[in-house]
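Design a sequence for this backbone.
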């Protein structure tokens, strides 16, 4: 099967979806560019700050939602079930579920004064629904922080050359933020400066590798997360994510150019069977490919940080739906990189256990970009991936801080962040990322289902059609609850008490939330 044929088919579908389906969603939410956004009406110089340019905010959104999710999930799915099921889910899941979820969460939050999805649940469903949703999200975010912190630290240990560019980007981003917002310097010139500094860090890192143990890097990462959570959003979070997005654009662009030059033929079987060691294709694949098709974490970013920085409602489609489509483009590249490496690896399921998903992607990316980057493709792929993992970490910590303050009535942002850091570090230091990933995937997808239910209730109150959000919500709810039940049985057999209890709590909270939604809609009808 020609890889280029797959790329062309996916791009045509994504383009048509953005052009027509996303336009239909704009009409459904009645996007009005003249309506003032919360970034202006609730400006506070810490969280509510209008983005200087829509590209800045797109960079923040894209880098935050991408992270390692659209790469690790698809790599695992291809190795376990084959490339075709993963590809179908990523393309159609993005168009009809993920894009609707991200755009809807963003524009609905903007209409509700920048409120989070959990806060909106209180307005459109009930106070109890908000508490249940917040607890669910809080637990899911702890899993996100633990998984990605461990992955980042482990990559630092295995590839010490990427430490300097990954951590050196932090002071560079702070300088870029200062130039843009304090000195009001030209955006293009500042961007060029930031990217040149980043390129210099990558070259320097290649010459000066920095070693360290897993524990040391975890401590460093959680210290960074603490400051990323408490500092004003335009000082560190937004400019760092903005610069990281260019890394991703560069990596994805070179990857697709490499594909067109290489013109590879995929010899890997498109389908590897219904069952695998990690579960059945349904529901396991749909929670394994978390961020590539739909992700509850995106709703938290869209309604947690992005909605507070949106300068104009007209930008919502570009940033919300467009950001999700771009992430799917990354996921398609991950699928092809994994399928192509099959020639060298043979048994990808075995390679998944020995090399890990990040290494598999890096090797496949190295093959694809060999004619352009020579032997540096693997190093560049790992550098880009780790930079994106850091964007997920800082955004997740900041959103967790919001929820902790709302849920537990803690007004001090230092204390609330410290609580998140403590729980996340405790789980990450256990080193059970491969066991935590399925729980993260299921909880993440269930957050997406619950967010879609909240959007459905909001549209219901506005007397709008419900089919765009209700059917995706039902599909995601049934799929993820089924997956959690399978996981619950597995953790019980493995006597893993921590993950068993987490899965059980998530199922109970989801059941209560769905009950609240059904009761609310029935009563109001």
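Sequence:
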């Amino acid at each position: 099967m020609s890889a280029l044929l797959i790329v062309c088919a996916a791009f045509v579908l994504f383009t048509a979806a953005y052009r027509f389906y996303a336009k239909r969603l704009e009409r459904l939410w009645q996007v009005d560019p003249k309506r003032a956004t919360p970034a202006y009406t609730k400006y506070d110089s810490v969280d509510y700050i209008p983005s200087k340019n829509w590209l800045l905010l797109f960079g923040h959104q894209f880098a935050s939602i991408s992270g390692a999710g659209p790469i690790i999930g698809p790599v695992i799915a291809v190795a376990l079930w084959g490339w075709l099921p993963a590809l179908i889910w990523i393309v159609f899941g993005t168009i009809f579920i993920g894009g609707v979820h991200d755009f809807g969460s963003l524009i609905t939050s903007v209409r509700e004064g920048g409120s989070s999805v959990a806060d909106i649940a209180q307005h459109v469903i009930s106070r109890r629904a908000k508490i249940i949703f917040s607890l669910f999200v809080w637990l899911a975010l702890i899993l996100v922080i633990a998984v990605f912190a461990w992955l980042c630290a482990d990559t630092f240990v295995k590839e010490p050359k990427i430490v300097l560019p990954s951590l050196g980007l932090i002071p560079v981003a702070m300088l870029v933020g200062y130039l843009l917002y304090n000195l009001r310097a030209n955006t293009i010139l500042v961007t060029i400066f930031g990217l040149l500094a980043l390129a210099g860090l990558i070259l320097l890192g290649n010459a000066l590798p920095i070693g360290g143990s897993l524990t040391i890097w975890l401590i460093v990462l959680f210290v960074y997360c603490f400051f990323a959570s408490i500092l004003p959003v335009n000082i560190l979070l937004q400019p760092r994510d903005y610069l990281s997005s260019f890394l991703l654009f560069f990596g994805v662009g070179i990857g697709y150019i490499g594909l067109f030059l290489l013109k590879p033929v995929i010899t890997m079987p498109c389908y590897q069977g219904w069952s695998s060691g990690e579960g059945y294709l349904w529901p396991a694949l749909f929670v394994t490919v978390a961020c590539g098709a739909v992700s509850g974490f995106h709703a938290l970013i869209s309604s947690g940080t992005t909605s507070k920085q949106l300068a104009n409602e007209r930008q919502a489609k570009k940033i919300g739906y467009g950001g999700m489509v771009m992430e799917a483009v990354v996921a398609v590249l991950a699928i092809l990189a994994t399928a192509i490496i099959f020639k060298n690896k043979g048994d990808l399921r075995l390679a998944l256990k020995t090399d890990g998903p990040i290494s598999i992607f890096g090797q496949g990316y190295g093959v694809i970009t060999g004619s352009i980057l020579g032997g540096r493709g693997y190093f560049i792929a790992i550098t880009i991936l780790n930079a994106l993992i850091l964007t997920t970490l800082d955004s997740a910590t900041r959103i967790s801080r919001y929820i902790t303050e709302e849920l537990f009535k803690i007004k001090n942002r230092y204390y609330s962040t410290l609580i998140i850091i403590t729980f996340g570090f405790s789980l990450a230091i256990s080193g059970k990322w491969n066991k935590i990933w399925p729980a993260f995937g299921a909880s993440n997808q269930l957050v997406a289902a619950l967010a879609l239910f909240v959007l459905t209730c909001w549209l219901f109150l506005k007397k709008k059609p419900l089919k765009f959000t209700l059917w995706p919500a039902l599909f995601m709810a049934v799929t993820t609850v089924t997956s959690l039940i399978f996981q619950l049985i597995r953790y019980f057999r493995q006597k893993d008490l921590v993950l068993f209890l987490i899965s059980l709590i998530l199922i109970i909270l989801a059941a209560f939330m769905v009950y609240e939604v059904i009761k609310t809609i029935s009563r109001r009808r």
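The beta strands are 275-276, 279-280.
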